[in-house]
Specification:
The complex is a heterodimer of chains A (about 280) and B (about 70). In chain A, about 75% of the residues lie in helices and about 0% in strands. Chain A has 13 helices and two strands. In chain A, helix 3 runs antiparallel to helix 10 and helix 8 crosses helix 10. The longest helix of chain A is centred in the first third of the chain and has 33 residues. The radius of gyration of chain A is 23 Å and the shape is globular. Helix content of chain B is about 70%, strand content about 0%. With about 70 residues, chain B is mostly helical. Chain B contains four helices and no strands. Chains A and B meet through helix 3, helix 4, helix 5, helix 6 and helix 8 of A and helix 1 of B.
């Protein structure tokens, strides 16, 4: 029962979780040290009635849904393309998969300063070279820019998983269907897509874990702004606990985030979990 | 395995290579910019490619670590 691994697991998961739940019921402000006292549900009430909470919720779901949509559709297309016979396929695969190995902070900084900056950035320079008005990405479309950066990072991941799955597809099936007169579209719908159902599920579930907790890209590029346009739940918790020094409200936000993540997980497992059986 | 014509292979390679360069372009671009001086790096893309190559940025970063 109390083997070392169980102790490790307790220390790693249960202690932080319990302390978060404990802190969420305390009046715990870093500006007033030594005044911690039990306040009941005040922190939860404060966090949920915060005007940025609804925005944060919508933004979290938007980032999650948008990136999942782009990476799944794009991943299927990319992996189908990379699975075709070609020369130098190793080099080309490495080029496509390279963005996944760039750290989130670095890739967000690169996109922000070298591509999306309206004055110095690559797109801004091209726009002014062509005589167009440079587009201020983080001012005009902050959420879409963040979704774009995250999608750029996660598209290679979906491509990688789906490509390995495509390589395990039996070529005899495809040839047999071709002899029976199936065109490439019906081959895709009836053979390739059912074969990919399980890897797509795996890719979506793994990405869910990471997309619900996106933080670095937002902190580095927009700081949650302008206003609350790119504030997601993770970032709101950071603002509450570390910028406004209210650890109690931040912990309450953390507990709410855990509950919401579980709701999302239940819905996802209901929708696509049957593929894993 | 079916025989695949070289034309088909060349077309696949061209499309996939374009896609690969498109995806990894930011990485390639910062690699190029790292060999340019700070002033050249923020010019327009054609000037960036034509400007002189230098290792200054690397020695600056190395100098900061001391």
């Amino acid at each position: 029962m109390m083997s070392p691994s169980v102790l490790l697991l307790l220390g790693w998961m249960l202690v932080p979780l319990t302390m978060t739940i404990y802190f969420s019921f305390l009046r715990y402000n870093l500006l007033n040290p030594g005044t911690e006292s039990f306040t009941g549900w005040t922190n939860y009430y404060y966090f949920v009635t915060d005007p940025s909470f609804t925005d944060a919720l919508v933004n979290t779901i938007s980032i999650f849904g948008g990136v999942l949509f782009i990476t799944t559709i794009g991943g299927i297309a990319f992996s189908l393309l990379l699975d075709q016979p070609m020369w130098k396929s190793g080099l080309i695969r490495m080029l496509v998969i390279a963005p996944f190995f760039v750290m989130p902070t670095v890739s967000a900084l690169v996109w922000k300063n070298m591509f999306m900056n309206p004055v110095n950035g690559f797109f801004g320079q091209i726009a002014s070279f062509l005589g167009l008005q440079p587009f201020d990405f983080f001012g005009q479309a902050p959420l879409l820019s963040v979704i774009w950066i995250i999608s750029w990072q996660w598209l290679p991941f979906a491509t990688l998983i789906l490509l390995t799955a495509l390589q395990s597809l039996d070529q005899d099936q495809l040839e047999a269907s071709e002899m029976d007169g199936a065109n490439s579209f019906s081959r895709f719908i009836f053979i390739i897509l059912p074969h990919l159902a399980r890897p797509i599920t795996v890719a979506i579930l793994i990405q869910t874990i990471f997309l619900l907790s996106i933080f670095a890209e937002i902190l580095v590029t927009t700081n949650g702004g302008p206003g609350t346009a790119t504030t997601n739940l993770t970032y709101l918790i950071y603002v509450q606990s570390l910028l406004q020094f209210d650890v109690g409200a931040g912990s309450a936000g953390g507990v709410i985030a855990i509950i919401l993540a579980n709701i999302v997980a239940i819905f996802l497992m209901r929708m696509i979990g049957k593929n894993l059986e | 395995m079916r025989a695949i014509s070289n034309n088909r292979k060349a077309l696949n390679t061209a499309i996939a290579l374009t896609l690969g360069l498109f995806m990894s372009f930011p990485i390639i671009w910062i690699l190029i910019l790292s060999f340019k001086s700070e002033l050249d790096a923020i010019g327009n893309p054609i000037q960036v490619l034509l400007s002189s190559w230098t290792l200054d940025s690397f020695s600056t970063v190395q100098g900061r670590s001391d």
